[in-house]
Amino acid sequence: MSTLKPAIGLFGINMNYLAQPQRAKVVAQEAESLGFESLWTGEHVVLPDPREAPSPADPSTPMAHPPAFLSYLAAVTSSIKLGTGITLVAQRNPVVLAKEIATLDLLSEGRLLFGIGAGYLHQEFAALGVDFDSRGPKTDEAIDAMRNLWSEDHPSFHGQFIKFDGVNAYPRPTSPMGPPIIVGGTSRAALRRTITKGQGWYGFALDVAQTEKVLDDLTHMRDNLPRPEALGPDIEISITPPKPLTKMMMEDYAAIGVHRLIPMLGFYPQETVLADLEALAIQLDLEA
After folding, report:
1. 35 belongs to a structural domain
2. Could you tell me if 114 and 180 are in contact, meaning their C-beta atoms sit under 8 angstroms apart?
3. Whole-prediction pTM value?
4. Residue ranges of the alpha helices (H) in the chain?
5. What 8-state DSSP symbol labels residue 114?
6. pLDDT at site 2
7. Which positions ≥6 away from 4 have C-beta within 8 Å?
8. Euclidean distance between CA atoms 251 and 280, whole angstroms
9. Does the residue 147 lie in any domain?
10. What domain count does the chain have?
11. Which three-class secondary structure state does DSSP give residue 206?
12. Is 27 among the domain residues?
């Protein structure tokens, strides 16, 4: 049984009532002072209207653009980490995204956690004019292409979807590999991507039993897949629980090897969110 005490983040700092910057600023600064480890954004560029499966939210749900919003929060905080949960890489031009993420990493002075995923909302891909069926291989290529731009003296990349040569991009992020890449998703493709390209894995709205099942799958797959030495031997595990976090739940997740828990800010109403976060910090014995 693990004796690990997970770090505690908060999901949804750019969503719903917190999509207004002054409200998010107050919550972000309070979370930092209480000892929360990180703040995470959600992301959908557009949502189907009217709502239809597999959309996760009503089309009028406010979701501010993560890199822009996190840049603002980086300026009004000093130590709390800032995570994208998750950036849908296949929807973006990876050369532009590499610049965007490197800049955000610099503005946050290395506090960025780059959560990424392939995406699942086909209506969103259609609205963006991006092929839905190739999103997996495009995501894999984009990770490699961005790291090439961040780390190589003379960047060059020749893939199926992404090609560049004879170009360069400065300033670079704070680490030669760029910010840590945390891969979201429970599909076999997402777990393979975690092992071969990521420093961490992010499971969303998973209870302890569901998380344990995915971690077992991740362990078995890792026995048969190469992991680049530069990524390090360990895979950091982050989970957003499907209900409000308690100390007992935290201990149960810790026992199966979860490193970070990221409860949803949406569990806490606007009127009581500051008091709710203070109560949660006390319950979980966070250290400011």
Report:
1. yes
2. yes
3. 0.97
4. 21-34, 66-76, 94-107, 122-128, 135-151, 188-197, 208-222, 247-255, 273-283
5. E
6. 53
7. 254, 257, 258, 259
8. 14
9. yes
10. 1
11. coil
12. yes
> In this structure, what DSSP letter does residue 60 have?
T
44: left (phi over 0), alpha (psi -120 to 50) or beta: beta
Tell me phi and psi for residue 119, to 5 degrees: 95, 160
Tokens of residue 121, six digits = 């909302």
Task: Show Cβ contacts of residue 206 under 8 Å, excluding neighbours closer than 6 positions.
Answer: 186, 214, 239, 240, 241, 242
pLDDT at 126 (0 to 100): 98
Using only C-alpha atoms, the chain has a radius of gyration, in whole angstroms, of 18
**pLDDT at residue 1, as a whole number:** 45
Here the CATH number for the domain that contains residue 180 is 3.20.20.30
Identify whether 1 is part of a domain.
no
The CB-side HSE value for 130 (13 A sphere, CA atoms) comes to: 24
Gap between the Cα atoms of 12 and 245, Å rounded = 15
Range of the domain at 91: 7-283
187, HSE (Cβ side, Cα atoms, 13 Å): 8
Owner of token pair 């009532």: 17
Length of the chain equals 288
For residues 86 and 11, is the Cβ–Cβ distance under 8 A? no
Neighbours of 113 (CB within 10 A): 26
Q: For 2, left (φ over 0), alpha (ψ -120 to 50), or beta?
A: beta
Q: Name 170's Cβ contacts closer than 8 Å, sequence gap at least 6.
A: none
pLDDT along the chain (288 residues), means of 10: 83 98 98 98 97 96 98 98 98 98 98 97 98 98 98 98 98 96 98 98 98 98 96 98 98 98 98 98 94
- Residue 118 and residue 189 in contact, taking contact as beta carbons nearer than 8 Å: yes
Residue with tokens 């999509």: 19
